[in-house]
Structures
1.
Amino acid sequence: MRLFIKLSYNGRNYNGWQSQPGHPSVQTQLERALSIWFKQQIDVTGAGRTDTGVHAINYVAHFDLQSDSLTLPKDTEKTIFKINAILPSDIVVHHIWQVSDDAHARFDAVSRTYRYYVHSQKSVFLNDYSLFYPHKLDIEKMNRACSLIEGTHDFTSMAKLHTDVKTNICTVTYAKWESGSPLGFECSDSLQFTISANRFLRNMVRAVVGTMLEIGRGRENPEWIIDVLNSKNRSAAGNSVPAHPLFLTGIDYL
């Protein structure tokens, strides 16, 4: 019996989603809670990795039960309540539902969406979830750069080096800068960057944002981002921005 599970987590205390020996991870915490509640060893497969400190809203994973010990939808509400009681306060399960035995949280996902927040005026409330960047930014130029990275490109220049992926080619379906602040805070100088793609490389969004900030600040023109991509050289791109303002906000399936 295969189940999909939807959850959110604050990534501040974790070395990302994936289990790593000697390091705290969201996957480890979720597997522990599920194993305790279902009284069997549960292994969870997530829709993808998130970097250390990155948050997720409506993250999706799947796991298998050895028997039909969960009667859906009758026991769903109780199960979610009990699992949330076992999980730490920075991880919450929203929904659990049965899927076909060959459904896969990672391989069946067709799109993922991330959002990054930046603010330019000092704030006592935004710093935990937004990057304080005290510079005037030209949104029009940054959105021109966004239009240039949409489509299929080799993102080697904006990926962490020496990873085990087979290809650095990704298809970006949406990228845009606009006004917005995290968690409902109202702040007139706060910006949000949203990007959707079929897949993301490690550190890719943070490198894209860092490169966009160079353009928005006037240090480079929008077309420079194409030169960066074509160089296939990580040192050609902007600096990687911090992880704490980055949220995985959506995972889409057919």
Note: The longest strand covers residues 109-119.
2.
Amino acid sequence: MKAQFHKHQKVWVESVGAWAVVEKLTPVWAKGFDEPVRISYDVGLGREFLAHELRAEEADETEGDAAAGGDWRLMRARNKWQPPEECAHHPYPGTFPVVVTDANDWGGWRTPGAEYDRDPFKIEFQARLISTAPKLLALIRELAEFVGENTEEAPPEVMKMGRAANALLKSVAESPQAPTPESGLGESARKTA
């Protein structure tokens, strides 16, 4: 049996529902065979996985993400503030979600340990939502373009969704402006200081 994944390769772990990186390959050898009879993969999630539990990243997935705003992915980091016995109520004991938004696994989103421990299922949901944001943004763009090109034929419900999509795109594209003294925000901030 030949290895289907290599060290440092990004893979989708189906049972966890998250991206991970192969940290170590563990071949199992049997006497009389020239190749390993089984290979398991350590992806840093507390147990080893077999090849059928993992999926390699496809080229077209990353191209779509790059066009939508980046290759955001959900990874799991080891929980350093609690041993796994103390966090058995977590969905994935011993780990917590980290959304990375940079190709070098820098930057992104993570939550403080105490907040994760308070409501781990809420934080897991937020991590999945944030990691899919570029794809959701691409879907909203497609919807807005479709409605813009088909205003005559689109049903009223679709037109309503198109207007909402345009409003969301506008709110994402606009940069917030710093408060000015004329807006009154600067004045109130000075009074409280």
Note: Residues 59-131 form one domain.
